[in-house]
């Protein structure tokens, strides 16, 4: 998958998630997706290369980085809890959707129960919950 397709796929997935909002707090070059005011995905270009930055479980982040050369520690984020995804071989739409959804679930799980738009323990990509 190339970088343009990566951005389109990630944005489409994020927009479908309940309570997801797109903001540009760092200027027009950064697309920041939030749920209830908390960031779960950032998209930008790092010297001309489109990237998607996502929250990840630390153990899962390490495993993903070992498995995929196009997944690296989070750009300008906590390297333990965030990953950076670039387009390339082995990166497909299903993987992008899974990583975006997992990032969202991790953020939702830390919101107060009354603010959670979905139950993060049962929400999986493809389920349609009302926004």
TrEMBL record:
Keywords for this protein: DNA-binding
UniProt-listed Gene3D superfamilies: 3.90.1150.30
This protein's record includes keyword DNA-binding: yes
InterPro entries named among the record's database cross-references: YjbR (IPR007351), YjbR-like_sf (IPR038056), YjbR/MT2646/Rv2570-like (IPR058532)
Stretches that traverse the bilayer: none
Pfam families referenced in this protein's UniProt entry, alphabetically: YjbR
A molecular function (GO) term: DNA binding
Protein name per UniProt: MmcQ/YjbR family DNA-binding protein
